[in-house]
Design brief:
By secondary structure, this protein is mostly beta strands. The longest helix is centred in the N-terminal third of the chain and has 10 residues, at about 35-45. Helices cover about 0% and strands about 60% of the residues. The strands form 15 sheets. It has a four-stranded antiparallel β-sheet. A four-stranded antiparallel β-sheet has the order 3-4-5-6, with no helix packed on it. It contains two helices and 58 strands. It folds into two domains: about 25-55 and about 420-764, YVTN repeat-like/Quinoprotein amine dehydrogenase (Methylamine Dehydrogenase, Chain H), CATH 2.130.10; about 60-420, Fucose-specific lectin (Neuraminidase, 6 Propeller). It is elongated, with a radius of gyration of 30 Å.
C-alpha cells in the first residue's frame, strides 16, 4: 500500500479530494481487467467532485440601504460564498431585527456584488451592481425584490463594453427606475445610465465632459430621483491630469451636465452620493485627494441654480477621509457617512449639516475592529437614521449597521453568512477506501493554523489540529497513515522570526504535537513530506536554511522520538531541498527533490538503508534546462516512480523518473494540449506498472487539474474535473489505497479575487 504524501510549493490554497462511488456493474467488469484498464474504466465516467467543507467564520459587507418606511428597509452588499467566490448579499429590516434574504447570482458568474438599492414601496426594491465571469469580464447586474424573493432582471450591456459597473439606482415607482455607473473598453471609460420601465432596461445617452473616444474617465457613482422626469446623478471625470467632480441632470428627455466646483489646489475631487429634498435642495458627498497622498471629505449643495462647496471637517489626525452616503431628512438637516483612516486603521465617520456648517458626530466602530466604514444611509427624520457598512476585526469583514438617535450613534446587530477562510489541503493519505486524512492550513488576519479533514466513506469533516505554543503560523504539508487511527503529519511553524519543523500525530480521536528537532543555527527548518512504513517507523524530509545556503533535511521517527539523520549535499549546490519521500520498508526509504548550482537546477534523489542516506544518480530529460522532482511512490525497494516537471527552453512540462532497483531513467508524461505550463505534484503506485500521478496544467489564463496513469509502458492523461467557472484548479496530494481507487487533494478559485477554497473529487 502506498503511503506517500506530497509536499506543495505554491501559493494557492484550497482542497480537492477524489472519492469512490459504488457502481456495481462497472466494478464487476473492472475486477477482471488489468490495473490500467481498471483505472481507465473508473475515469471513463469522470472523477466526481466532492463537497469539502472549508473552515468558515461569519462575514459580509453592506454597501447601501433604502427604506420605504420605518418597518421596511433593505440593505445590499456582498459576501464570500463557500466556493470562495464573491456573492450578492441582501438583508431586510422589519422594524425589530435584520435578517438575510437570499439574493441571486447570474448563471456563470465568478463574482457578484450589489452596490445600490432603491425601494419605492413596501415589498418592492431594485438593486444594482456588477458580476464578473471567470475570464474577468464585468457585466451590469440588476435584481428585483418582489413577492418576498429576489430575481435577476435582464439588463443591457453596452455593445463595446469590456467592463460595466452600476453603482447607483433610484426608483420613483415600480415601473420607473434609473441606474447609473460606467462602462469601459481599452479606448475609454464613460458614464452610463439605464432606465427601467417595468418591463425592460434601456441605455440612456448621458453627457460626458469630453469626446467619449478620447482617453478620459467619466463615472457616475450615485443618483437621486424626485420623479421620473427629475433626477440628479453625481460622480467624477478624469482628464488624465486632474480629476474633477461631475453632476448631471435628467429632465425626462436628456441628461445635461451641471457645473460643479472643485477645491483649489487639490488634483483629485469626486462625488460619491447625492440626495435631494426638492428641485432646488440637493446635497452631495465625496472626497478630495492632495498631491502628497492624503485626502479629506467633500460636500456640495445645490440651490436650484448652482452647486457650492460646503466645508466639511476631518477627524483630527486622519490621513484620509471619505463620504460615501448622504441623507437629508428635513430642510437644513443632512447627515453624511463614510470613514477616516490613520495609518493602517480606519474608523467610521459621520457628519451632520445644520444648514450652515458640518460637524462630526462620532459613530464609534465595534470594539476590536481594525477597519470600519459606513457606505450607505437612510433617514426617516433628523432623529432616526440608519447607516450600513462593514467592519473588519481579527478574522474577517462583517456587516455593520448603526442607528442615529438625534444625539448619538449606536450599533444595531446584523446577521452574517458563513464565509470561508483562505485554506488549502496539501497532502492526503487513505489507509482504506473509506478512511482518508487530508492536511493543509487555514489563514485569517491574525493566525495561520493547520487544517485537517477526515473522510469516513460518506462525507468530509473538519477536525481541529493544534498550533504549537508560541507560534503564529503552523502549516501541515504531508500526512501518512498506517491505519485509520494512526497517522503522522509534518510541516512547519513560525514564531515571527524563524521557521521550525512541525509534526503532529492522529490517534483516531485527536491530533497532538510531536517533539521534533531543529538544526542549530538555521533560520528555517522545514519538513515537507513524510512516509510511514509501519507504526513507529516514519521518515520525514525537507530542508534547513541559513543566510548563506539551503541543505537537505531528513528525520526518522522510531516510535518514541524524532532524530535528524545526516543527508549528503550534491557537489556544488547552494540550494538543496527534498520534497517527497516513500518508505516501502522500515529500513528502506527514497527521497527526491531538487538542487541548484551556479549554472543549473537539477533533480536529486537519496536512498536510506536504515543507517545512512546516499545520493543516487538521476538523469535529466534531453533538452532540459531546469529539472524538479516533487514526489515519489515506491511499491517496493526495487520499484519507485518520481514526478515533477522540467523546463525545455520554451515551456514547463510534466516529468516522471522510474527506479528499477539499479538506476533511474527519465520519462516524459504527455502535457496538456496547448498548455504552456504543466507539473505533477503527487504520485501513488500499487505496483511497478500501476501508478497514478496528479498535478495541474495552465493553458491561456486557465489553470486546471491534471491526472496521468502509468501502465508499465507509457503515461496517458486521464480526464479530471474542475469546478464550474473555476479559473485556477490544482491537485497537490494523491493517495490510492488500492488499484483503480484514488483520492487527490488541491484547491481552486473562481477568479483572481476569489478566496481559494477546498476542492474534492474521487473515483473508484
Amino acid at each position: 500500500m502506498n503511503r506517500l504524501v506530497v509536499s506543495l510549493r505554491g501559493s494557492a490554497l484550497v482542497l480537492l479530494m477524489v472519492a469512490a462511488a459504488p457502481f456495481a456493474a462497472r466494478e464487476a467488469a473492472a475486477a477482471m481487467a488489468t490495473p490500467q484498464a481498471r483505472y481507465q474504466a473508473a475515469t471513463a465516467s469522470g472523477w466526481s467532485l466532492q463537497n469539502v467543507p472549508p473552515p468558515t467564520v461569519p462575514g459580509g459587507s453592506l454597501t447601501a440601504i433604502s427604506c420605504s418606511g420605518p418597518l421596511s428597509c433593505m440593505a445590499v452588499g456582498s459576501y464570500t460564498d463557500r466556493t470562495g467566490a464573491q456573492a450578492a448579499l441582501a438583508e431586510a429590516w422589519n422594524g425589530r431585527t435584520w435578517s438575510i434574504v437570499p439574493a441571486v447570482s447570474p448563471s456563470g458568474s465568478a463574482a457578484t456584488a450589489l452596490t445600490a438599492v432603491s425601494c419605492p414601496s413596501a415589498g418592492f426594491c431594485v438593486a444594482v451592481g456588477t458580476w464578473s465571469n471567470s475570464a474577468g469580464q464585468s457585466h451590469p447586474l440588476a435584481e428585483r425584490w418582489q413577492g418576498g424573493r429576489w430575481s435577476t432582471l435582464a439588463i443591457v450591456n453596452p455593445v463595446t463594453s469590456q467592463r460595466t459597473v452600476l453603482s447607483g439606482v433610484a426608483c420613483t415607482s415600480t415601473t420607473a427606475c434609473i441606474a447609473v455607473g460606467y462602462f469601459s473598453n481599452p479606448a475609454y471609460t464613460v458614464t452610463l445610465a439605464e432606465r427601467w420601465d417595468g418591463h425592460h432596461w434601456a441605455v440612456q445617452r448621458t453627457a460626458n465632459v469630453l469626446n467619449p473616444t478620447s482617453p478620459v474617465w467619466g463615472v457616475l457613482n450615485g443618483i437621486w430621483c424626485l420623479s421620473a422626469t427629475s433626477c440628479t446623478a453625481v460622480g467624477y471625470y478624469d482628464t488624465s491630469v486632474v480629476q474633477r467632480t461631475l453632476a448631471e441632470l435628467w429632465n425626462g428627455m436628456t441628461w445635461s451636465i451641471q457645473p460643479t466646483p472643485n477645491l483649489p489646489g487639490k488634483p483629485a475631487n469626486g462625488l460619491n452620493a447625492v440626495t435631494c429634498r426638492a428641485a432646488n435642495q440637493c446635497m452631495a458627498g465625496g472626497n478630495y485627494l492632495t498631491g502628497n497622498g492624503s485626502g479629506g471629505p467633500l460636500a456640495e449643495a445645490w440651490n436650484g441654480r448652482t452647486w457650492t462647496i460646503t466645508p466639511t471637517p476631518a477627524p483630527a489626525g486622519a490621513r484620509y477621509s471619505y463620504l460615501y452616503g448622504v441623507a437629508c431628512p428635513s430642510a437644513g438637516v443632512c447627515l453624511a457617512v463614510g470613514y477616516s483612516a490613520t495609518g493602517n486603521t480606519s474608523r467610521t465617520l459621520a457628519e451632520q449639516w445644520n444648514g450652515r456648517t458640518w460637524s462630526i458626530k462620532s459613530a464609534s466602530p465595534p470594539a476590536g475592529s481594525a477597519q470600519s466604514q459606513l457606505t450607505g444611509i437612510w433617514c426617516r427624520s433628523a432623529r432616526v437614521c440608519t447607516a450600513v457598512g462593514s467592519t473588519t476585526g481579527a478574522v474577517s469583514a462583517r456587516t455593520l449597521a448603526q442607528t442615529w438617535t438625534g444625539s448619538a450613534w449606536s450599533i444595531t446587530p446584523t446577521p452574517n453568512p458563513a464565509v470561508p477562510l483562505v485554506s488549502g489541503l496539501y497532502g492526503v493519505s487513505c489507509p482504506t477506501l473509506n478512511n482518508c486524512v487530508a492536511v493543509g492550513f487555514y489563514t485569517n488576519t491574525s493566525v495561520t493554523g493547520p487544517l485537517t479533514e477526515l473522510w469516513n466513506g460518506k462525507a468530509w469533516s473538519i477536525v481541529p489540529a493544534p498550533i504549537p505554543p508560541g507560534r503564529e503560523v503552523a502549516i501541515l504539508t504531508s500526512v501518512s497513515c498506517v491505519a485509520a487511527g494512526n497517522c503522522v503529519a509534518v510541516g512547519s511553524s513560525y514564531n515571527g522570526t524563524d521557521n521550525f519543523t512541525l509534526a503532529e500525530q492522529w490517534n483516531g480521536t485527536h491530533w497532538s504535537v510531536m517533539p521534533t528537532s531543529n538544526v542549530t543555527g538555521a533560520q528555517s527548518t522545514v519538513l515537507s513530506a513524510v512516509s510511514c512504513a509501519a507504526a513507529g517507523h516514519c521518515a520525514a524530509v525537507g530542508y534547513y536554511a541559513t543566510a548563506a545556503y539551503t541543505r537537505p533535511l531528513a528525520q526518522i521517527w522510531n516510535g518514541h522520538a524524532w532524530t535528524t539523520s545526516a543527508t549528503p549535499n550534491p557537489a556544488g549546490s547552494q540550494y538543496t531541498s527534498m520534497s517527497g519521500v516513500s518508505c516501502p520498508a522500515a529500513n528502506r526509504c527514497v527521497a527526491v527533490g531538487s538542487y541548484a548550482t551556479a549554472s543549473a537546477n537539477m533533480a536529486m534523489a537519496e536512498a536510506w538503508n536504515g543507517t545512512t542516506w546516499s545520493i543516487q544518480s538521476i538523469p535529466s530529460p534531453a533538452g532540459a534546462t531546469g529539472t524538479y522532482l516533487q514526489a515519489l511512490s515506491c511499491p517496493s525497494a526495487a520499484a519507485c516512480m518520481a514526478v515533477g516537471n522540467y523546463y525545455n527552453g520554451s515551456t514547463t512540462v510534466p516529468l516522471a523518473e522510474a527506479w528499477n532497483g539499479a538506476k533511474w531513467s527519465a520519462q516524459s508524461p504527455p502535457a496538456i494540449a496547448g498548455a504552456f505550463y504543466g507539473t505533477l505534484f503527487a504520485v501513488s503506485c500499487q505496483a511497478t506498472g500501476d501508478c497514478v500521478a496528479a498535478g495541474y496544467g495552465t493553458r491561456n489564463t486557465i489553470t486546471g487539474t491534471l491526472a496521468q496513469a502509468w501502465n508499465g509502458h507509457n503515461w496517458s492523461i486521464a480526464p479530471t474535473p474542475n469546478p464550474s467557472g473555476a479559473q485556477q484548479s490544482y491537485l497537490y496530494g494523491l493517495s490510492c489505497p488500492r488499484s483503480g481507487s484514488c483520492a487527490a487533494v488541491g484547491d481552486y478559485s473562481k477568479s483572481p479575487v476569489s478566496t481559494p477554497v477546498p476542492l474534492a473529487a474521487r473515483f473508484q
